[in-house]
């Protein structure tokens, strides 16, 4: 899927650092928070599907840093009875749609490359009992339940076996409406640049040149925000193909400060989980993930500390120190305070 960045609604290339973007007041920077969220998903207006209602699911995977292992998959939205004939972009979850817009959040970004995979899929039909059971249980387990590796454990956590199997089947189904894979880099040349703003991904239907010249992304001052419309006629919505709209910024989100622990828990579940122990393993894995996270951050701090011994310039020294500070913020509270005290003493 092609990718463009919205600058005041205009669609621009993503390999250029832009100023004055829609969210320039919360620009991405080392040591600041980083949030990636989905604003819109348009499943498409496939003529073959007209008259049909479908269950729609959005999932995401976000891989951070130089690792070969795939990231755990997260369920960001499940919607019943989507009508292809009406072809409405999915923008609001209201009070009845299961979902979480946040794809990724860290309270202190350390400059890593970030890989994002988005999937919009059509699920099998789910009856009311199964649907309500899924929503009820995953809503009570906590953040880790948003990640798909937790799905097989939900039966032991109170969700009936058949209902849990329904969820697992939906997650693994390959009837994709849209698939997007993109790597974002903070300071690498000739790459898609990680910067604050709204990103538009679309599945064919128009080349980038046409999208830039003919369409814009709605925003502040428009009746409906975060949809693609004709530049000359707001009533003409882009419906040639499915698309996603994402937003990146450095806004602080206190309720998501443990997001990375949830992702780490999900990754551990895939490797070491025992489906028969249900909620016990879910809670234990979350504690272990916190310890694993601290070990990872301490290892990175050690490597940056070595780099501080022989920096090429004062600018590089400043950059390394910012990365150390960012890694320290990602430690659990007790360890974070201890390391901060040590660093303040030795890096005076």
Can you give a write-up of this model?
Strand 12 and strand 13 form a beta hairpin. The longest helix has 30 residues. 31% of the residues lie in helices and 26% in strands. The protein has one domain. About 3% of the residues have low confidence. The N and C termini lie far apart (48 Å). Strands 2-1-10-14-3-7 form a 6-stranded antiparallel sheet, covered by helices on one side. Strands 6-5-4-8-9 form a 5-stranded antiparallel sheet, with no helix packed on it. The protein has a 3-stranded antiparallel sheet with strand order 11-12-13. The chain is built from 7 helices and 14 strands. Helix 4 crosses helix 5 and helix 5 packs antiparallel against helix 6. It has 348 residues and is α+β, with helices and mostly antiparallel strands.
- The stretches of 5 or more residues where confidence is low (pLDDT under 50) are 271-282
- The helix fraction, in percent, is 25-40%
The global form is globular
Largest sheet: 6 strands, antiparallel
Mean pLDDT across the residues is 75
Structural class: alpha+beta
Question: What is the tally of helical segments?
Answer: 7
Radius of gyration: 21 Å
Proportion of strand residues: 25-35%
Kindly state the number of beta strands: 14
Q: For the terminal residues, how far apart are their CA atoms?
A: 48 Å
Taken together, the total number of domains comes to: 1
How are the SSEs ordered, and which strands pair?
Blueprint: E1 3-7, E2 10-12, E3 34-42, E4 53-64, E5 73-83, E6 98-99, E7 102-106, E8 114-123, H1 128-141, H2 161-172, E9 176-184, E10 197-202, H3 208-214, E11 215-217, E12 228-230, E13 233-237, E14 243-249, H4 259-272, H5 279-308, H6 314-329, H7 333-346
Antiparallel strand pairs: 1-2, 1-10, 3-7, 3-14, 4-5, 4-8, 5-6, 8-9, 10-14, 11-12, 12-13
Helix pairs in contact: 1-2, 4-5, 5-6
